[in-house]
Design brief:
Elements lengths: L1 H21 L10 H27 L7 H14 L1
């Protein structure tokens, strides 16, 4: 959870730099505001759910269930490099 909170300043900084470019131009913004709101809410919800699941796994001492995902993610990362 701590790393999640550490990412907030970086995300907000990126938003401050990118939001003016999204709304730049004439007339309608390049990205509809509703899409931005929906993507924010979705990312926030999925992030909280993932953190909740990881905390549940750690607290219930079932972190071994997380191992196959780590192996698969590692194989994918190595194969893509």
């Amino acid at each position: 959870a701590f790393s999640f909170f550490l990412s907030i300043p970086a995300i907000l900084g990126a938003a401050v730099l990118k939001v003016p470019h999204i709304f730049a131009g004439e007339g309608e913004p390049q990205v509809p505001v509703m899409h931005l709101i929906l993507s924010f809410v979705t990312a926030f919800g999925v992030g909280l759910a993932a953190l909740g699941m990881l905390l549940w796994l750690a607290r219930s001492q079932k972190l071994s269930w997380f191992a196959p995902y780590c192996w698969a993610a590692g194989v994918v990362a190595i194969s893509m490099s």
